[in-house]
Amino acid sequence: MAVSKVRKLELVAHAECREEIVTALRSLGAVHISDIRELFPESENQLPSYLQGSLSHIKEKLAQLLYCILFVERFAPKPPFLEKLAKSKPVFTVQEFEECLATIDIGKLYEECSRLEKNLEENRSQIEKKETLISDVSHWLQLPWPLEMIRDTQTTCVTLGICDGRAFNLMTEEMAEVSPLYHIEVTGRSRTSVSMVLIYSKSVEDLLAPVLRKYAWRPVRFAELNGTPAQIVATLREEIKELHEHTQHICERVMREFVPALDKLMLLHDHYSQECHTLEVQRHFLFTTRVFLISGWIVADHEEALRKRLGEVTQVFELRCYDPAPGENVPVFLENNRAIAPFTLITDLYGRPQYTEFDPTPLFAPFFGLFFGICLGDAGYGAILAIACFIALKKLNIYGGPRKLLEILVWGGIGSFVFGLLSGGVFCMKTEQLPAIFKSMMLFEATGDVLLFLYIAFGLGLIQILFGIGIKMALNVRKGHVIDAILDQALWILFLISLAPLCYKYLFGGAVGEAIVSHAVRAAKILAVALVLTQGRKTRPLVFSPLRGLLKLYGVMNYFGDVLSYARLMALGLATAFLGMTINDIAQLILGIPYGIGYALAALILVFGHAFNLAINCLGAFVHSLRLQYLEFFSKFFTGGGMMFQPFAEERMYTIVQSSPAKPLMESHR
C-alpha cells in the first residue's frame, strides 16, 4: 500500500517485429511510454511516412464512423436513465469482431448515411418553406379568383396587400378623400391586420401612393402560384403530407437497417480508436531504417512479465531496465488494497505524490471515512446511503471516477452508521423517542453533550495533525535527514502534546490534575526553549538564529488554528441532527388533520424532508471532510505534483471483445 517501485525502461528491437511488439505491449498494459526526446533532445517527434499514411487513413475511417454513429443514434430508442446506467457494454467474440471488420464497408455506410441525412434535411427545409407559404396564402382563402388572374390591366392596378387592422378605417377614409377611383375587397381580417384585394385607376396612383405608405400598406405577390388560394393550400398540404411520408420512410429504414447494427458500429469505433492511439503512441519512438527504440517506465514487479511476453513474440529485441537517477521525474503508480483503492480519487484531485513521497491514500482514508460519518452523524442516514450506493455499484454500469465515488460513499455511510449508534442519532429522533436497543449503544448524546462533542472533534483534529507531522518525520528519516526529523518534527510533536492539557484546562475549563499541569508546564517551557534555539539553525549569520527560532515558535498559532478548524465536524453533525428533528416535529404537528390527510402529509414530509436532509448534508460532509484532508492534514507532509503512471494499454469505450490473451497487469492505474 504505497508508491510502487518504478524502473526506467529502454527497448530496442528490429523494425520487422515492430507491430508484434507494439501489440504485446498494448495487451500487457504495463509500460508507461515516454517521449524519446527525453533521451535524444535533437530527435523529431514524427512518425515514418508509411505509419503516417496509415494514421491518416485510420483517422478518416474514425471520422466517418463517428458521423454514422451520431446519425444512427438519433433514431435509436432512448432508454430511461437508470436503465441506461444498468446496461452493460455489448460483448463480442473475436470471430464476431473479425466478421464486422470484413463485412462492414465504412465508406459506403458513410455515403449512405450522408445521403439519407441530406434527404431528411431537404425534406425538413421544404416542409418549413411550404408551411410558411400556406401561412401567407391563408390570408386570401376567401378569394374566389385564381391568383394568376390578379394582375394589372391597361388602365387599372390590381394587387394583393396587407395593412394594419387598427388603421384600416382611417386609411380608407383618407383614400376616399383623395379619389373615389379605387375598390377594396377585404378577404381576411384579424385584430392586427387586414388582407385585401386593392383595385385602383392608374391615373390616381400618384395620389394614393402616399396614403398607402402612410398606413404601412404592404403589397403581396405570389408570382409562381396558380389556382385559387384554397386550391393552392390544399395542394401544399398534400405535398407536405408526401414529404412527411418520405421522411417517415427514411426513419423507418434507418431504424430497421441501421439501428440494429449500432453496437457493431461502436465495436468498429473502439477498434479504430485503439489503432489510432497505438499509432499516435509510436510518435514517441525513435526509428532508424532497421531498428526502433522505446523509452519508458515499468513497475518493478512487472519487469519479468514483460520479458516473458516479449519473448513469446520475438527473440530479436534488447530490453534494459534500471533504477531512475536522483531527481528524475518518475511517473507514480499507486498500489492499494481493494478497500483503500477508491480513495485514490481524492488523492488525484489534489495531485499524485512525488516518487520520493509516501502515498497519502492509506494514511488519510480512515480519517476521511470517520470524519464523513461524524459530519453526517446519523445511523439511519448512514445505512440508507451505504445500502443505496452498494446496490448502485452492483446493478449499474458505472466505471472510473463515479464508481470510486460511490465506493467512498459506502465507507462514509458505514462511518455515519457507527457514529450515529454511538451518539444517539437514528433518523434524527430525540433521545427519549429512541428504542431501548439504540439507547444501550450510546456513549454520549451528540445534541445534548455539545461540549463533549466539540472536545471529541478537537481531539481527533489534534491526533490527525500530530500524525501528519509524524509522517513528515518519517520522510526525513527515509531521506537520511535524521537531525531534521528530530528537531523539526519530533520537538514539535512533543511541544503540542505538552500544550494539549494546558489548553484543555485554561481555554475550555476542563478538569486536569495538578500533577499533569505541572509536568506539562515544565515540558512546554523546555521544549519552547529548544525550539527557539534549533528552528533557526540554518539561518546565516548564526547570530540571528534565535530570532528566527522565536518567529518559528509563533507557528504554534497556526497549529492552534488548524485544530480549531476541526470544530466543523461538530457543527455539521449538529446541523444534520437539528434539521432532521425539525422535519420530524413538523410531521408530528400535522398528524391531527382528520380523514387520514394528516398521516399522508406527514409521510410526504418525512420522506422528502429526510431525503433533502440526507442529500444536502451528505454533500457538506464530503466537501468539509475533503477540506480537512487537503488543508489541515496534507499541508503537514505532502508536496504532490507527481506525474501519473499511464501505461500503454487497450482502451475500449463502448464494447468488450472476449479474447484468450492475458488481461492487462494494471486494471485500476487511474
From TrEMBL:
GO cellular component: proton-transporting V-type ATPase, V0 domain; vacuolar proton-transporting V-type ATPase complex
Mode of membrane association: Multi-pass membrane protein
One Pfam family here: V_ATPase_I
Single GO term (MF): ATPase binding
Subcellular location: Membrane
InterPro entries: V-ATPase_116kDa_su (IPR002490)
Coiled-coil annotated spans: 106-133
GO biological process: vacuolar acidification
Similarity remark: Belongs to the V-ATPase 116 kDa subunit family.
Protein name, as recorded: V-type ATP synthase subunit I
Source organism: Candidatus Abyssobacteria bacterium SURF_17
